[in-house]
Amino acid sequence: MSFVQAQQVTLDYPIVSGGSRSLKNQLLGAATGGLIASGDRIPLVKALQNVHFCLKEGDRLGLVGHNGAGKSSLLKVLAGIYKPTSGKVLTEGRVVSTLNLSLGMEPEATGIENILIRALLLGMKKAEIQKKLDEIIEFTELGEYLHMPVRIYSSGMATRLAFATVTAMESDILLMDEVIGTGDAQFMDKAEHRLNEFIYKSKILVLASHSEAIIQKFCNKALLLEQGQMRGMGSIEEVFSIYRQRIADRNPI
Q1: Would you tell me which CATH number, out of the four given (3.30.70.890, 2.120.10.30, 3.40.50.300, 2.70.70.10), belongs to the domain 3-93+209-250?
Q2: DSSP code of residue 102
Q3: CB count, 10 Å around CB of 166?
Q4: Which residues lie across from 174 on neighbouring strands?
Q5: At 30, is the pLDDT very low, low, confident or very high (cuts 50, 70, 90)?
Q6: Chain segment 151-171, per-residue pLDDT in tens
């Protein structure tokens, strides 16, 4: 049985240069949405503060909040990219993340070689890769370019390659920072169908998005983050109502 548990997760980023009162640190704190806190020697940005929730199979959680509220930081902690400063994350099941589609891309390697490298980094077994390789190749529609180095690819071609590989994964727990696209309008319809299938096959979804429509489409509950702190969790309607009210309170007419 797949699950995700965040137990009082706190994440601090150390600021290793400049004084705690510098304009740079103040701007960094504002940009990340965290709070600048002075440690004994090194000032810290508090990216997440005591975040806690439990997700079970069938849960599809939308992360809501302004830029720098802590959504991406939370996804990276759930993915195991960042270790919490305190608290812990427990997961059961295969975790698949789309946080960095270009991860593992080797410019001098061919497209096919990059499919293999990327798939291994995503945690696919060799037998699983071989089983899915022909389907990934066909989906990219890159033809002979797959035998050429990725450094000659356009950005759209590189995105196609990465998109086809990551969406071939079978996930128990899927982590997404915004809905991924292909960078190619002609390819979009085909990609949208594949993406929807990829998302719906996951047992648990955690999706960060600024779009209420996207959250409504893919999620069945939401969590509001502000300056790394939980400000509400519940139905999508309830959470967006709180979000809009907090925005209105900060910007009175």
Answers
A1: 3.40.50.300
A2: T
A3: 21
A4: 96, 205
A5: low
A6: 999 988 998 999 999 999 999
